[in-house]
Amino acid sequence: MSPASAAPPPTYERPYTSPRPRGGFLLVACPGGAEEELCRRQRELLPALQRGAWRRGVVTFRLPAGFDPPDDFFPDLVFARAVIRSLGQVTAATTAKLVAAATALAGAADWDNVHVFPRDPRAETDVSAIRHALLEACALPADAPAIAAPGDRVLDCVIDTPDRWWVGWHRATSPPSRWPGGMYPVPLPADKVSRAWLKLDEAIATFGIPLGHGERACELGGAPGGSCQRLLEAGLHVVGVDPALVDERVAAQSRFTHWRKRSRDVKLRDFRGFDWIVSDMNIDPVSTLEALGRVVTAPGVRPKGIVATLKLPAWSRAEALPAWLATFRGWGYAPQARHLSTGGRELCVYAERAGRPRSTTRRRATRRPGR
Ligand SMILES: C[S@@+](CC[C@H](N)C(=O)[O-])C[C@H]1O[C@@H](n2cnc3c(N)ncnc32)[C@H](O)[C@@H]1O
To answer: What is the greatest pairwise CA distance in the chain?
Structure first.
């Protein structure tokens, strides 16, 4: 199942015309270094696709003859940040010429939004100047929000090098497909105690995690406290399990408790009554799964959801992902995995207890950029 399907269904109430030309390739953006793992997943899920170009952060796949995926196609490739229909590349020496070539390739009419992003997020590219020129060429307002609305036809420009762009398009649906290049568009606020705050924020937005006010969460590996801080902001009562120190800004909060020990030193009965188990320990994925399994299979412990970071000592360790996800299923949970754009070399697994109907009426503690 695609992570996108976990989010509330988008509403497409506007009249819609499919883009023409369609494009014979998929272009998939991924974290630099994860290309081989992306392709491994593609071979499992979409074996009829043929690998085309391969550059750090981008892989293209030729679509088989007769296969025209839906406009909002976003297969569950785990490492895919963005999935777009590629129309090809344009090369020119100036932005004006590149814009003219890109709009000649894609057509300038009928786009609802324009996403511009560099193939390598570390590249120094004046994305906003390029986007501005493309918005103008497409007769779109200069202040069009960078986050697309659900249902938008988005013209995509992937900056390969300053004089060479890939041009393509996609239809925005899931939260990541609404963010340029699938990159979470929220900067880390200055008052947050660690980047883990942003990772959990992105996970909540990506999977639509229905954290509820007054619920109880326990985080294994909770120091220095960024994700506990995010959980506290969502109105939860939070226990952080970690032998390391928790930042005073989190430790001092009345709804926070620090169990200053390793996960395996916590008595199993103390894990009873938690609605959520979050895990962000800097240990091998196999050890994380052991620690989580000890908790969620203990008598009387039945959280409604697990949010787990699996740190990958090497990208290739993701080869074991199907087995790891089967472990979650064996515990009675329905897992979804995704590489978060704010995360490092790691995967986020969100697993809901199987058989639980998703609540649509309970107050949700999610915050969605662009909503
Ligand atoms: C990446 S940091 C966690 C960041 C944290 N989630 C935050 O929001 O700031 C990893 C943490 O895992 C903790 N850790 C590693 N092994 C652990 C274990 N067996 N039990 C509890 N914590 C553990 C480390 O002490 C370290 O503080």
So the answer is: 67
- CA-nearest of 89, 159, 90, 87 to 130 is 159
Whole-number Å distance, alpha carbon 353 to ligand 1 midpoint, is 24
Q: Which domain holds residue 74?
A: 3-182
Give, in order, the Cα–Cα distances in Å from 120 to each of 5, 123, 125, 183, 202: 27, 6, 10, 12, 20
**Cβ 254 under 6 angstroms from ligand 1:** no
User: The tokens of 62 are what?
Assistant: 């030729």
**CATH code at position 276:** 3.40.50.150
- Judge if the beta carbon of residue 239 lies within 6 A of ligand 1: no
Name the residue among 94, 174, 186 with its Cα closest to residue 146. Answer: 186
pTM: predicted TM-score of the whole model, two decimal places: 0.93
Q: How far is the CA of 240 from the centre of ligand 1 (A)?
A: 9
Ligand 1 centroid to residue 219 C-alpha, Å: 9
166 and 23 both lie in a single domain: yes
pLDDT tens, N- to C-terminus, the chain (371 residues): 333 334 444 556 678 889 999 999 999 999 999 999 999 999 999 999 999 999 999 999 999 999 999 999 999 999 999 999 999 999 999 999 999 999 999 988 889 999 999 999 888 889 999 999 999 999 999 999 999 999 999 999 999 999 999 999 999 999 999 999 999 999 999 999 999 999 999 999 999 999 999 999 999 999 999 999 999 999 999 999 999 999 999 999 999 999 999 999 999 999 999 999 999 999 999 999 999 999 999 999 999 999 999 999 999 999 999 999 999 999 999 999 999 999 999 999 999 999 866 554 444 444 444 33
Residues 11 and 146 in one domain: yes
CA angle 175, 230, 301 (to 5 degrees): 95
**Cα–Cα distance for residue pair 328/350, rounded to 1 Å:** 10
Whether residues 146 and 214 fall in one domain: no
